[in-house]
Specification:
alpha/beta; TIM Barrel; 14 helices; binds flavin mononucleotide
Length: 332
């Protein structure tokens, strides 16, 4: 497995520029990559960069206490970003400026969310049809902080005809890095990701006098996929989303050649359950555990699809414990 080279994210304050030693990113995923999940994945080793789930700006600036809640209290062993999703520059500068009072090392802007309620408010991926608005949003964020500001995009809304305009807008507004999910908004999360579009985007970025690091995302589900996407796209880093739900040890596997065992994955599930049940969220806990089961791949957790389907129908956590107790200790 190829070791990725370190990358630097430049902020408008050179003292706040950030060296990322290992550009292997855990993708932000709302409803999954909360502080507990991030902490448990990072504790396994191998992950190089973390990010909060998106924080949506709509009716006012985001208070510091919300940023702190989204970041959690654990000190991660690698850089972490705060991700905002904003339909315009309203309240953006105030929200971005507050990030400097947290431990996050950079700010990421979401231009990829396909969800209807977001899209209809012209946020997330809807902005891909308006590169000039994207320019304003990125520039506003860049001017509000000395920290690096990055952008996460998709390839387009219904096609890729504006992709170069989008990349140009983000780059000229001062973004420090571009992460691209190689699917259209209309493709949501289905279909294979188009790595050929990622390759085209990187080729275009490299034609600029001062290119910024380019991070490939979409359908990178195994260690072999990491090597393949680097080879095909010449990206500077890789971002893994559902592949990390399927196998939270994928980063360790890639960096240390240590694949997960079923015992380890079962223990991860138990630890995750304990972490999310420290508060008052027992109800959503079962749903979150089922997310892990839903995406689990190969024979990491199950010998066959029937076993998975059976557990996906579980109405209580005890049914899941009954299955995984064969491989790990179950909480009392
Ligand atoms: C459940 C879920 C929630 C997501 N939430 C976010 C989010 O908060 N911010 C974001 O930029 N992308 C979000 N995404 C998109 C992922 O970051 C990533 O771009 C996408 O899943 C493609 O990568 P993959 O094929 O490796 O999963 C989400 C994806 C999923 C499946």
């Amino acid at each position: 497995m190829t070791k990725l080279k370190p990358i630097t994210l430049s902020g408008s304050d050179p003292k706040k520029s950030l060296l990322i030693e290992n550009p292997l990113f855990l993708a932000p995923m709302e409803g999954v990559t909360d502080p507990s999940f991030r902490q448990l994945v990072a504790a396994r080793g191998g992950v190089g960069v973390l990010c909060t789930e998106f924080i949506r700006i709509s009716q006012g600036h985001i208070p510091l206490k919300v940023l702190r809640r989204e970041l959690g209290t654990w000190q991660e062993p690698c850089p972490i970003a705060v991700q905002f999703m904003a339909p315009s520059t309203d309240y953006l500068a105030e929200s971005v400026a507050l990030v400097e009072q947290t431990r996050a090392q950079y700010v990421d802007l979401n231009f990829g969310c396909p969800v209807k309620r977001v899209f209809n408010k012209c946020a997330g991926s809807a902005l891909l049809d308006f590169p000039d608005r994207m320019f304003d949003i990125v520039k506003c964020a860049v001017e509000a902080t000395g920290l690096p500001v990055t952008a996460k995009i998709r390839a387009g809304v219904n096609d890729t005809h504006l992709l170069k305009d989008v990349i140009h807008a983000v780059h000229s507004a001062g973004a420090a890095l571009l992460a691209m999910h190689g699917r259209l908004r209309s493709e949501s999360y289905a279909m294979d990701a188009h790595w050929e579009w990622l390759a085209e985007a990187q080729e275009y970025l490299l034609s600029f006098e001062k290119p910024i690091p380019f991070i490939a995302n979409g359908g990178i589900d195994t260690c072999d996929d990491v090597d393949a996407v680097v080879k095909q796209t010449k990206c500077d880093g890789v971002m893994i989303g559902r592949g990390a739900i399927a196998d939270p040890f994928i980063f360790r596997h890639y960096m240390c050649s240590e694949p997960a065992t079923r015992e380890e994955v079962c223990a991860f599930i138990v630890e995750y359950w304990q972490a999310i049940n420290q508060g008052s969220q027992k109800k959503s806990g079962l749903g979150r555990i089922k997310q892990l089961l839903k995406y689990s791949v190969g024979n990491l957790l199950f010998d066959n699809e029937d076993q998975r389907q059976q557990l996906m129908r579980a109405r209580d956590i005890e049914t899941i414990w009954a299955y995984i107790s064969g491989w790990t200790a179950i909480p009392a």
